[in-house]
Each structure stands twice: as C-alpha cells, then as structure tokens.
Design a protein that fits this description.
The protein has helices at residues 20-31, 56-60, 65-76, 104-108; strands spanning 39-43, 46-50, 85-88. The chain is of the alpha+beta class. It has a three-stranded mixed sheet. A hairpin with a 2-residue loop joins strand 1 (39-43) and strand 2. Helix 1 (20-31) packs antiparallel against helix 3 (65-76).
Length: 109
Amino acid sequence: MKRDLDRSFGPQDEGPDIDVEELVEFLAQQVVDDPAQVQVYRQGQTLLIRVGEGEEGRLIGRQGRVIQAIRTLARSATSPRARLTVDLDGPRAGQGSGRSSFSSRERRS
C-alpha cells in the first residue's frame, strides 16, 4: 500500500518575494536604541549592517546570538542556492585600520 505523502514541508522553490535587505534592516532596528542610525547595504553576496556608535554590542548580542539569529532568518528568506552572508560593518575588536603599530623605520632595523 502506497501512501500519498504531503511534501509541502520544508523550503519551497516558489514563495513570497521577500526583500532580504529590508528584513535585515527591520530586525536590526528592533534591537538597537536608535533605529534611525541603522543602514543595510549589499556588497557582493554580503549584507553589511551599520549601526550608530556604541550600538554594535546590542546587534551582536551575548555570545553572538542576536546577529546569528538575524543571519539565520536572512538565509531562510533566500533561495537554498543563494550564498548570503550577513555581517556587521565597521572595525572589530583586535582589528585596527590595518596598519602595524611599528613605524617604517622600526621595521627596517
């Protein structure tokens, strides 16, 4: 006896057209204190989120849970084949402007 299984569960090829940039912007605005400072823009296959000064920690969340949740929702709103990355725009801890702390004279010695 063969059962007719319902295959509607899981990702579908067709679905509502969701603007992922708007979704990420909306989610980020809900987390920060100053939603007007939130900007989301695309750079290749990466969505970069820029927030007001001092609000990066709110967007990242404890142990990165908030930004990870935003990434998960953004990926679920895209097609399974799309390779989308969501990241926070701006310098990270331990990453300066890319310059070494040594001057050019000290490196030559």
